[in-house]
Design goal:
The chain is an alpha+beta fold. It has 4 helices and 5 strands. A hairpin with a 4-residue loop joins strand 1 and strand 2.
């Protein structure tokens, strides 16, 4: 059984729905149009929900910010002892499983859904690993260029291409 009614206080008034069996407020609508669902205080935002929210569609027109982030950034990738997989290992994994290592498959996405915080973490880890691969490639290229320059390969190669 629910009670519907207006709350009067010295500062403002709002409409609320209260569960009479356990005397818990279930919903509050304040004079500013803010709605609180399952909250214990007046809502400070247009919509405040204490608990899970299920939606079949969601559109954000400005930004989405997650406060009280509980997952550390994967900066361990940059620690001295961290070993990125060789590109050959990554290629073998992709050829056999059709997705990146440590990432869910398309089937897992469909069956289990996606935890956006966890996915952002994994994607950032992959970006950081790609950065390490790019740094290593740059070092190898520079080494090859210096070797080619010392050997005179660049000069000989350029002369061979000029008609």
């Amino acid at each position: 059984m629910f009670q519907f009614g207006k709350i009067n206080s010295t500062s403002a008034s709002s409409f609320r729905i209260v569960d009479l069996f356990n005397n818990q407020e279930r919903l509050r609508l304040d004079i500013n149009g803010n709605v609180g669902i399952g909250t214990t205080t007046a809502p400070a935002e247009r919509l405040e929900v204490s608990g899970k929210v299920k939606a079949t569609d969601f559109i954000a027109t400005n930004s989405i910010k997650i406060k009280n982030w509980t997952i550390d950034a994967p900066d361990f990738v940059f620690e001295k002892g961290y070993k990125v997989r060789s590109l050959q290992e990554v290629e073998r994994h992709i050829r056999s499983r059709k997705h990146l290592p440590e990432m869910p498959s398309a089937e897992e996405f469909k069956d289990k859904g996606v935890d956006i915080l966890e996915m952002n973490y994994k994607l950032l880890q992959k970006v950081e690993e790609l950065t390490l691969y790019a740094i290593e490639q740059e070092k190898r290229i520079k080494k090859l260029e210096s070797f080619a320059h010392v050997e005179g390969w660049e000069t000989q190669n350029r002369q061979a291409r000029v008609p």
